[in-house]
Amino acid sequence: MGLFKKILSVSFKEKSVFRFDYIVNTLYSFFSIVLKVSLWKGLYGTGGGAINGIVLNDMIVYSILSSFTQGITNTSVMNDLNSSVLDGSISSNLLLPIGLKKYMFISSVTKNIFLTVYGIVPSVLAAMLFFGFHPDIRFSNFILYLFSVIMGILINFLYNFLFGSSVIWLRNSFFLKNINSVLLNLFSGALVPLWFFPQGLKAISDFLPFRYIVFEPIAILLNTKSHEETLFVLAMQLFWITALFCAVTLVWHRGRTKIMIQGG
Amino acid sequence: MREVIWYLRLTSVFTRKAVKAMLSYRFSFLINCISQALDYSVAFLLMWVMISAFDNMNGWNAYEVMLLYSFSLFAYGVAGTFFFNIMNNLPGQIWKGAFDDVLVKPVKVLPYLLSSSFICNYIAHLTLSAIVMGICFHALEIPVTFWLLVRILWIILFGSLIYGGLFLIVSGSAFLVTKITAMFNIMFFFREVSYYPLSIFPKAFQLIATVLVPYGFINFYPLQALLGKSDTGYWKSMAAWCPVVSISFFMISCLFFNRSARQYKSSGS
Q1: Which residues of A touch B208 (CB under 8 A)?
Q2: For residue B34, which residues of chain A lie inside 8 Å, CB to CB?
């Protein structure tokens, strides 16, 4: 815990050097929420009737919550891993007296706490005031949401780490970034919730971990699920964490000896 | 005139070099292109899913909105081919002081950067958006005639000029501030705005995208005229202004770039 605090404070100091950049980024994330909400307003039109049982206000709430959830579950570990393998700086990280996975997880989480506090929370609050936030949230759902989001963070981290590890063999990181954004954009529900998906796509998403990162936690928070369904989601998240953790351990065990360090 | 020909010859030398570099990493290049095309295809797919679940987006149906997207993407691809590398490399050159190399060459800064920055990486964007355009015109039952093709090229030409100007503004600001990530993000944010009908956004956004940074003229206003839409209250028939707006915007951007380049202080050792 002490180590975590130390890394957190260093991370805050490091990032606050570029204050102007972060102010503009806050503005940027606020604009992104405005963009999402405008899209739904444009789609619902002036009539505003329910589509698939969902009204415009639900979508405004969903857009704001998804920006928050997407922000907090986000991780740059794949990029970090890629660049540290390609430029050789991973060699010094491997020498740290703490496992690489653990180190990267802590630095990813601290980075995100910073971004959430400075960038996402202000823009989400502004959006709440701006659009009038009328959610129907129960306390018990909120607690379940927190659990689910923490598991979402773990799933996203592990999957990104697993994908990122492939750079050891492939030595090309550009296409990974694209494939990653394909999968996340499509299946995480960050822009379009799975409620609006055609059957085929929905069926595919059942077999992938991505819906458990953004969509399912919000669905739990918005009380759209019965007790059994909520339990099922949490169990599935646990399953994915275990599966991904095993895969990461296996891949990393093999890859560790294969890393080719270039550069000094 | 002789100068122009000289820079064109320089461009062809650098372009040949860029193509050769691309061909020596053929497989890697191909994978990058495919993954990029896949990324944008998913964006198209999501757009289609979203709009099809409803009926239309403020009077624009799924194919019409996809047409907006593909025009914006195509113009971005054309501009990116010539300008992206300037934006990508300049901040690094400035930090390291490597921009000195450009200044000591017997060339003008902007024409030199333009002729040396050609990249082939936008083939995926261009191919994909051309395919989507074809699909959309077919679905909307608009016959593709010679005149339509001329009109499409006309729209794309001025759209690319606007995107080129934006690239130059972001690149030029690298001389003034140390980090351009924020500028870059704002530019990409408005690029995303341009994928959808401008009329769905708050009035402030519409004003910015019409007057301040003319994103609206890249695709929205010209396509509004092409498809016969009339969904913005107080700005009608803006399409005719496209050439004027885009050429003057591009010229202002060049001016801005040259002005800020004068602020360059070598920071390397």
Answers
A1: none
A2: 175
Helices vs strands, H then E, count in chain A: 13, 0
Model ipTM value: 0.83
Q: Which two tokens stand for residue A97?
A: 């007296």
pLDDT tens, position by position, B20-57: 888 888 888 888 888 888 889 988 998 998 888 888 88
Q: What is the 3-state secondary structure (H, E, C) of B38-64?
A: HHHHHHHHHHHHHHHHCCCECCECHHH
Contact A186 B51 (CB under 8 A): no
| B241 touches A at CB < 8 Å | no
Closest chain A C-alpha to B227 CA, distance in angstroms: 18
Helix runs in B56-117, H state only: 62-96, 99-104, 109-116
- Joined together, the tokens standing for residue B103 give 């200044």
Q: Which two tokens stand for residue A259?
A: 């890393």
Question: What is the rounded distance in angstroms from the CA atom of residue B207 to the CA atom of residue B216?
Answer: 9
Instruction: Look at B46 and A34 and tell me if their CB atoms are within 8 Å.
Output: no
Is the CB of A35 less than 8 angstroms away from the CB of B49? no
Q: Name chain B contacts of A18, Cβ cutoff 8 Å.
A: 179
Cα–Cα distance between B61 and B53 in angstroms, integer? 11
Helix (H) or strand (E) holding B132: helix B123-139
Residue type, B169: I
End-to-end CA distance of chain B: 38
pLDDT in tens, B116-152: 888 888 889 999 999 999 999 999 998 888 999 999 9
Interface test with A, best of B41, B125, B173, B181 (most A CBs within 10 A): B181
Using CA atoms of B256, B260, B261, B265 in order, give the dihedral in degrees to the nearest 10.
180
With CA atoms as reference, the chain B residue closest to A32 would be B189
Q: Do A28 and B189 touch (CB under 8 A)?
A: yes
* Contact in structure between B215 and B162 (CB atoms under 8 Å): yes
Task: From chain A, pick out residues whose CB is under 8 angstroms from the CB of B58.
Answer: 42, 45
Label residue A57 by pLDDT band (50, 70, 90): confident
For residue A53, the cross-strand partners are: none
Residue partners of A51: CB distance under 8 A and separation at least 6: A44, A196, B53, B54
